Amino acid sequence: MNRSVGLAVVAIGATLLGCQSQQQMVDQMTPDAQLVAQRRGAFEMNCPSATATVLSKEMMQTGMGPAIGWQPAQRAEYTVGVSGCGKQVTYLVVCAVGGTGCVAAGARNNLPQQQ
C-alpha cells in the first residue's frame, strides 16, 4: 500500500513539473517567435519600423505515435500581430521544441490599420 501511494505522489509531481516546464519552454521561445514575425512583417509590408506583439501562445503536440514509448513532437505556437506604416498583419509562428528556430506561417490577414 505504501509503495503505491509513493508511486502516485511521484506521478502527480512529475505531471505538475511537466506542465511547468512546458510553460517555461513556451515563455523561453517567445522572443524568437516575436522576432521572426517582426522580420517577416517588416519585409512583407516594406516597413523596417514594424513592431510585433505576441497575442497568444501555447504548447502543442502533434498526433499520437504508433509505437509504445514514442513521444509526439512538441511545438510552441504563437499568434503574433505585426504593425507599422499604416498596415497590420497576423502570423502563426511555430517553434519546435529542441529545434533550431521558428517559422512564421503565412499571414492570417493583411488589413490597413484604422485611422
Structure description:
The protein is α+β, with helices and mostly antiparallel strands and 115 residues long. The chain has one domain. The chain is 37% helix and 37% strand. It has a four-stranded antiparallel beta sheet with strand order 1-2-3-4. The protein is elongated and about 50 Å long. The N and C termini lie far apart (68 Å).
What are the salient characteristics of this protein?
115 residues; 37% strand; alpha+beta; 4-stranded antiparallel sheet; elongated; 1 helix
Which percent range fits the helix content? 25-40%
Q: What series of H and E elements makes up the topology?
A: HEEEE
Q: What is the overall pLDDT average?
A: 77
Annotation field: number of helices: 1
Rg measurement, Å: 19 Å
How are strands sequenced across the largest beta sheet?
1-2-3-4
Distance between the termini: 68 Å
Uncertain runs are 5-19
